[in-house]
Amino acid sequence: MMTQRRSRTLAAACLLAATATLAVSGCSKAETSDNAGGDSSQGAQAAKTPEASSGAGCSLKTYGAPELDLKNAVVGFSQSEKEANPFRIAETQSIKDEAAKIGVKKLLVTNAQSQLSKQISDIQDMLSQGAQFLIVAPLNSDGLEPALKAAAAKKVPVLTIDRKVNSTACKDYVAFLGSDFVEQGKRAADAMIKATGGKAKVAILLGASGNNVTTDRTKGFVDQIKAKAPGIEIVAQQTGEFARDKGQQVMEQLIQSKPDITAVYAENDEMGLGAVTALKAAGKKPGKDVKIVSVDGTRNAVQALVNGEYNAVIESNPRFGPLAFATAQKFYGGEEIPENVIISDREYDDTNAKESLGGAY
Predict the structure, then answer these.
(1) Strands laid side by side in the 200-206 sheet
(2) How far is CA 273 from CA 251, 297, 298, in A?
(3) DSSP-derived 3-state class of residue 297
(4) Is the distance from CB of 297 to CB of 313 less than 8 angstroms?
(5) pTM confidence score
(6) Which of 6, 71, 61 is closest to 334 using CA atoms?
(7) What does 200-215 look like in DSSP terms, one character per residue?
(8) How far is CA 26 from CA 43, 45, 337, 361, in A?
(9) Which residues contact 161 (CB under 8 A, 6 or more apart)?
(10) pLDDT tens digits for 227-276?
(11) How confident is residue 54, by pLDDT bands cut at 50, 70 and 90?
């Protein structure tokens, strides 16, 4: 029985990956078109191989939701943070674009403005407006239980993207779509080791507290440095809350309190770019005097690489629209969806930044 279930789960994941890859192949041009002249096809998001997905499969039957045709449905999308961050801008636009592409009857879009209480009320309001399927980008890994319970009471499936919730899959939500954040941290550490030659005093600009992205990106980086580069010392860890202005402020403080810092690991590009501004204002050369590695893959960070002011960027792809709706269609088609659908993320460095700029967001 377990063998059959595992086989069905892997088969569903395989089909999901294939569908998602096909779904995204046609949308990247509009999302990445600019004057950079890069390869915009590199901006497409796709699931990894079935082996990278994990957890028991969740089907429409096991979830207990009614059948639904997305073309005759009301779908809600709950964004967690204000769209001043390129990641959030690209994520929301991707959901809107794909909903329009597949012909969703009505798409409700809300923004919690980084307030957990507002995200809960946003979701409850969308349910009151008749939402029949929800895509949620959680602000925090904990705290959304009232909203999830409200959705469960109305038999409305919830798909979470980009941040995990500490709840029960196939009961409180269908599945999580997103990156392997521990792996992102490890890859950032490898890039830092390469950039510094394995010797540095590193400051970590932590993301916002209360979510698995920050926890996992920190763990991956710290563990990898400890295992592979004893010559690299982590001398500071301070939150910049995933914001450019906060990253700049923290870096300004660190320049004063830890003047011997020679490298910065920023857990998103916005904080890394804030650090660049602070370093330049202090008369230091980012990318040279102080090596910088961050996670996201925004156009501005990749441009900083091209300019020699950055050393590496690990991508965290925000274009969830095609994969989210492909997952929903599979789910409503009766197929099992793995608990965790992990996407592939690329990496930018000085060898590929210029030609890859068109694929950044």
Answers:
(1) 232-239, 200-206, 263-266, 291-296, 312-315, 347-349
(2) 10, 12, 10
(3) coil
(4) yes
(5) 0.85
(6) 61
(7) EEEEEEE--SSSHHHH
(8) 11, 11, 23, 16
(9) 91, 135, 136, 137, 176, 177, 178, 320, 324
(10) 999 999 999 999 999 999 999 999 999 999 999 999 999 999 999 999 99
(11) low
